[in-house]
Structure formats: C-alpha cells, structure tokens
Amino acid sequence: MPMAEHHGEDCCVKVAVHIRPLIGDERLQGCKDCVAVVPGKPQVQIGTHSFTFDHVYGSTGSPSSSMFQACVSPLVDGLFQGYNATVLAYGQTGSGKTYTMGTGCKDGSQTGLIPQVMDALFNKIDSLKHQAEFQLRVSFIEILKEEVHDLLDPASVGKVEVGSGHTGKITVPGKPPVQIREGSNGVITLAGSTEVDVSTQKEMAACLEQGSFSRATGSTNMNNQSSRSHAIFTITLEQMRKLDTVFTADGVPIEDMTEDYLCAKLHLVDLAGSERAKRTGSDGLRFKEGVHINKGLLALGNVISALGDEKKTERRCPCSLSRQQTY
Ligand SMILES: Nc1ncnc2c1ncn2[C@@H]1O[C@H](COP(=O)(O)OP(=O)(O)OP(=O)(O)O)[C@@H](O)[C@H]1O
To answer: Is the dihedral of CA 312, 91, 108, 192 positive or negative?
Structure first.
C-alpha cells in the first residue's frame, strides 16, 4: 500500500509502500504473492518491472512497525514547530489502507498510524507542558460521492443498513452539508464541520472511533468491508509558547514578547480504494461510487504531481509555503 508523504527540507513528496500479507480468502484460493522486495533496497519487483520508493515496509522489506518512526513521527514533531503536514494512504481496494491508518473500528486500530500519532502527540505535550500551553481540536470528515459529510456530527446517531449491504449514518434532516471554502488568505476551511476540543488521548481516540463507526462502508468482491469514501482525520494543535521575558535597555520587561502563538494541522487521510468495476463486481450504486472514487483519486494524483514539480510549487506564494510541510 503506497503512502504519500512530503518533506519540506529535502523533497516535496515522499512515497512509502506497505505490502500486506495474503489474507484468509486469498490463501484459501491459493493466491501467491506477486510483489517481491529487492533485498537491501527500497524497491519492489512485479514481474519484470521494478519500482523504487522512499521506503518499503512489509514482506521482506523493513518491518511495518518501523513505519511510524521513519515516516510519521517527524511530522508530529513538525506540528510543534508550526508545520502543517498530510499523510495519505492510497492504493487499490483491499490493499490495507484502513488497516495501516488505523481508521477502522477493528484490526489495525491498536497499531495503526493514527493511534501512534496520538501516543506521540500526547507524550510530547506532556514533556513540554511547562514551556507552553496547548490546545487540541479534531475534525473527521468523509468525502462520499463528491459530498462532504461530518463524521463527528452529534446528530449522527450510528449506522444503519441502507440496502444492498451498504451502511450509512442517520443524520437529522435539514442540517446543512459541510462546505469547502477558501479564505482570502488561501486557507481552506470546512464550513459547518464539527471541531471537537480534546484534552486527553482518550477523548481523541473516542473521536476516531466514533467517526470510523459512522463512515460509509460496503461489501465488494475484493473487500467485504470496503471504505466507500475518502476519510480525513484532522488534528489541529495550537500552542502558546512561554518565551523568556525580554527586557528593554532600561530593564523594563516587554510584555508582548513573552508569548509566541503557533497553530498547525496534521491531516491523516484514508482514501477510498482505486478499483476496477470488473474486479470488484460493482454495479448500480456501488458502480457509481466507484466512478466518483476514481475521479477524485485522479484529481488528487494531479495535485501530488504538481506538488512534486518544483517549477509549479515555486510559482506559489512564498508565504503560504513558509510554514507548510506535507507528507
Ligand atoms: N498489514 C496487514 N496485516 C494483516 N492483515 C491486513 C494488513 N493490511 C490489511 N489487512 C487485512 O486486509 C483486509 C483489507 O484491508 P483494508 O480494509 O484495510 O483495505 P483498504 O485498502 O482500506 O480497502 P478499501 O479501499 O476497499 O477500503 C482487511 O481484512 C485487513 O484486516
């Protein structure tokens, strides 16, 4: 499963591959691993084709347990310096994105990347609590068929079966949908999405669990619990750093200069899987979802190519890049 990352210092976008083992049904059907890791290199071989990435985890590559430390932990540290960051899990349906991110309500949720982010974040806050005051907020949205839904909407009261094995949430009619807006300063906001103030790891984990439970899933031939939407879990960290008091030449303390405010966001994205209708056996509603999913992924691919293209990123306003680091 590939994951895109972007490192402000050396390269715009970095890509790590996570190879999952064969699972139950695949073993029963006698499937064989078709991806081989080239020993000692972040390179995989599929048939006669070789592909090189920044990291390869799983199979005979680096152990999956080291992925967080190498790829995501530096982003958590960056948050404390005011850098925004994004982790995207991208891949074919059933390749293990939800498992890797820990966005599902089961399996990977204990070891997925998001729970590890929470651990690291709260440990760091604890170690810095005497130097700064912190405030954390989370939002959790999904993009389903080009519509943005709020997964932390207090009006959502759980999951119901909505025909053909599809699950969805009940929302109170009349609640305006979440709108994506761009402010005059270029900051994108999601008008109408719930932002929950959290002060403990338990509260943040409860938001992840609640939102994951509300997410739309459905069964296809390739994954019996396939995510049908792109899900974005956003952590906003605000901090008021207490600086050493600055004095004028006469020894008078300058009040205004004793605090430094920083705000940064970490977006953790579990994309819906790219799919081929023929292989997933999709028809009707599920087929339409697949078309929207593939359309969104194509647009995202163009954005990532542009981010990785130095000529295009140079044209952007330097101020919008100054505190931006995206993985
Ligand atoms: N590294 C792994 N080790 C063991 N099992 C895994 C691993 N990754 C994924 N799986 C299993 O593979 C199955 C598919 O994984 P998952 O639902 O995460 O895929 P996905 O890429 O999110 O699919 P979709 O795009 O359809 O939502 C699940 O049963 C999951 O438990």
So the answer is: positive
Quote the CA–CA distance of 161 and 165 in Å, as a whole number: 6
C-alpha 52/C-alpha 16 separation (Å) is: 10
Express each pLDDT in 86-126 by its tens digit.
999 998 888 999 999 998 765 445 679 999 999 999 999 99
Cα R_g (the chain), whole angstroms: 21
CA–CA separation, 217 vs 232, rounded Å? Answer: 15
> 19 CA distance to ligand 1 centroid (A)?
10
The CATH number covering residue 204 comes to: 3.40.850.10
ipTM of the complex: 0.98
Structural domain total, the chain: 1
Q: Give the DSSP per-residue string, 32-79.
A: ----EEETTTTEEEETTEEEE-SEEESTTSB-GGGHIIIIIHHHHHHH
pTM: 0.82
| Beta carbon of 217 within 6 Å of any ligand 1 atom | no
Q: Is 65 in the pocket of ligand 1 (CB under 6 A)?
A: no
Domain, as residue range, for 214: 63-322
| Token pair for 93 | 């349906």
Identify whether the C-beta of residue 97 lies closer than 8 Å to the C-beta of residue 270: yes
* Domain-embedded: residue 23: no
Ligand 1 within 6 A of 96 CB?
yes
Establish if 10 belongs to a structural domain: no
Ligand 1 centroid to 162 CA: how many Å?
Answer: 23
